[in-house]
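Predict fold of UPF0312 protein; 180 aa.
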Amino acid sequence: MLIAISSNAQSWKVDANHSSIMFNAKHSGISFINGRFMEFEATMEGGTPEDFTGAKVSFTAQVNSINTGAEGRDNHLKRNDFFDMENHPTISFVSTSFTKTEDNMYTVVGNLTMKGNTKEVEIAAHHIGSTKTRDGRNKVGFQLTGNVDRNDFGVSGAAGSVAPIIEILCNVEVEEPKEN
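Predicted 3D structure, encoded as tokens:
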């Protein structure tokens, strides 16, 4: 999923080896089940290592790559009462705003699509820090957190045992791409 913006904007390459899309779901009111999507693509355009106001972010996660540490549960999550992977193989997010709220903190608003349903969500983005790669390119880290109501997206299986509010946690490293 690509985002087109002005040609002079900073492009960032997501370091998939140092990034993750994870979630926590409260189970039976007494514990949490966590999981992650092992396969995803993401883009980030705009911003500088010091200020990301106005940046654009997007990601697409492959539902087939869901991993909660239990194969039976993963297979159930792929069925139609949860993600309906056969008809909706991806989950996607495209930002509509990236606003600085205080030092190193941003609010990211955008459209999240799951199971064919798109809703606006708000995510907090903590700019962890910036550094340089060995070859002098800028590298930046973020942690994104937020909550979504899975029922808003039709992901409503196991209503009696899985809470509707799902915690989202993404750790992301981006770097300037190498010049050709």
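The chain has one domain: 12-175.
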